[in-house]
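User: Could you go from structure to sequence for me? I need the amino acid at each position, not a summary. Structure tokens:
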């Protein structure tokens, strides 16, 4: 393939930043944007580029939640040598994030050919957008929203962390959508579900970006587009995080459900008419 241009990288970085933490599927939107710009969605360099610019979005989480992260990491480090500290929720939460990341790492490595091959189809994206909407709608209705962030447990972290596999295998399902929906079904409130989704995404997405870096640089993506896309993703993602936390404190996920269905149906129409291949 020809290298992704800086202009295309800026567009894709903006798409990544807006959609990474909203429950609408950043992977799905990136693939749609790539298709509309004539960029082959299943090319190794494109897949690598998409994973790398996610690091910009993750950096936004690190900056936005820097005080929380510093507190959790400090508690974890103290707990390694101080037995009393191990009873602290922050110490336990740090381990939960580590353990909850293992399932998605294992599946990502084992199913890499499938993920980057047949499942990288825009048809899969369209179907997953709509299917994920149904899951999100049910979770928001059935969840009792009675548990806060301090009430989370190891079981919660493992179930929510493992749900990221759905988005890994089915681009369009949405990592945020899967994790938030699972947290809501476990009766966490919307803010707690959203924050848990953020924290669990940090190691998974950072690892994916670093793992794909060699492919993105070695197969034509180019260093300048990678830098441009990552920087734009960071700035836009930071604004998206701030907006989303305020939004979920007062609103349901209905707007995201409707949006996902509309985009999924539109994508089916574009594929069916040959506008997108």
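Assistant: Here is the amino acid at each position, in order:
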């Amino acid at each position: 393939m020809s290298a992704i241009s800086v202009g295309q990288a800026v567009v894709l970085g903006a798409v990544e930043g807006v959609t990474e933490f909203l429950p609408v599927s950043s992977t799905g939107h990136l693939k749609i944007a790539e298709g509309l710009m004539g960029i082959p969605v299943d090319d190794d360099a494109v897949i690598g580029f998409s994973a790398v610019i996610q690091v910009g979005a993750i950096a936004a989480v690190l900056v936005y939640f820097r005080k929380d992260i510093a507190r959790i990491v400090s508690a974890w480090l103290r707990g390694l040598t101080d037995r009393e500290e191990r009873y602290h929720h922050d110490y336990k939460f740090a381990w939960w994030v580590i353990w909850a990341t293992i399932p998605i790492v294992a599946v990502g490595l084992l199913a890499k050919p499938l993920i980057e091959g047949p499942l990288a189809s825009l048809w899969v994206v369209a179907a997953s957008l709509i299917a994920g909407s149904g899951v999100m709608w049910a979770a928001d209705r059935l969840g009792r929203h009675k548990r806060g962030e301090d009430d989370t447990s190891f079981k919660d972290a493992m179930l929510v962390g493992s749900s990221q596999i759905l988005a890994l295998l089915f681009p369009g399902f949405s990592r945020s959508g899967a994790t938030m929906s699972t947290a809501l079904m476990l009766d966490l409130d919307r803010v707690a579900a959203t924050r848990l989704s953020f924290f669990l995404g940090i190691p998974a997405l950072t690892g994916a970006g670093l793992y794909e870096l060699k492919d993105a640089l070695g197969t034509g993506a180019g260093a300048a587009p990678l830098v441009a896309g990552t920087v734009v993703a960071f700035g836009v993602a930071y604004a998206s995080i701030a907006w989303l936390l305020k939004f979920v404190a007062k609103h349901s996920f209905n707007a995201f459900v409707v949006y996902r269905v509309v985009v999924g149906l539109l994508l089916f129409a574009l594929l069916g008419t040959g506008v997108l291949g």
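One structural detail worth keeping in mind: The chain has 13 helices and no strands.
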